[in-house]
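Sync notes, pocket subgroup
Present: LS, DG
LS reminded everyone that the earlier model was apo-only. Rerun requested with FE2/S2 (inorganic) cluster included. Inputs:
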Amino acid sequence: MAKITLDIFRFDEATDAVPHRDAVVVDVPETTTVLDALETAKAEIDGSISFRRSCRSAICGSCSMNINGITGLACKTPCNTVMDEKGVVVVDPMPNFQPMKDLVVHMDPFWDKYSRLKPYLQPADADSTHERERRVSPEDMKKLVDVANCIMCATCYALCPVVSVDPAFAGPAAIAYAYRFIEDVRDGQRKERIAQISEDYLWLCAHCYACSYCPKHVDPHDRIIDVKRASIKDRVLMNERGPRHALVVSKTIKQTGMLAETEVIQGTIGRFNVRGLLKVAPLGLRMAAKGKMPPPFVKPIPKVDEVRTIFEALEVPVS
Ligand code: SF4
Ligand code: SF4
Ligand code: FES
């Protein structure tokens, strides 16, 4: 047994103007999970400590919280992997959410973005007119298995820096779940779903990989790339800046082996979009004043053929 100190964020939106912290010492085995340590604290010391949980087995997705500054499932995190040398474990509510009571947060924005996906199959014809069950080949199902493991714990959403600066962004979990339906051969709304998630700022993802930490190995970041690829493949909303930017970046790198920034700016904003180009002109002038103006043309690097071979091997779309 060990004495573990839980340093707990305490706040009740019904009564408190500002949060405070409580240090609660529990006597538990070092290998106990953070969730079980919290359960002990609640049962034996302070019944008012609030947190969500249900399964205790990393299945229900309820117990996400910040543990020593990193979001994760409390029921999957043994205390001895996170406590400091004094046996202290710091627990806070998930970031990117409004705290409600202690470690419980308002999940509404997360669920709203999820429900906008219409997260259920919408086949092209009605079941009553379909002659037999809708079959999926093992190969097609393989694409969906990992993402179907999502337990909607919102860990990835809490870790996403884009959500923190632009709450309109759908976030990694919703985009990954959109992929689950976009790639389901039984669904009849592929293009509509791609358009919907594009309108929910799919292209704002900054590819920082913070959401790669997913307790169920859904890899939302990779699914975001898949959805972007699907949007280009199906030519959905191709006039938006996101896909235009992706294509012009690929094109210039394939042509020259370098990022031709001037062409990327023009290709993203639109060569004939005078108003858009005028908007970025002050930035261009400031860059020029600091000697950082990108060259108007970029010469291909000596081994550009090798770069082109990589593009062709990976079938990277460029136009
Ligand atoms: S993708 Fe992973 S981290 Fe995100 S909600 Fe689903 S299970 Fe949780
Ligand atoms: S990769 Fe994209 S979705 Fe994932 S955390 Fe970074 S910005 Fe957010
Ligand atoms: S209690 Fe269910 S995932 Fe942790």
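DG: Strands lie at 2-10, 20-28, 64-67, 70-73, 88-92, 99-101, 104-105.
LS: DSSP finds twelve helices and seven strands in the chain.
Action: DG to write up.
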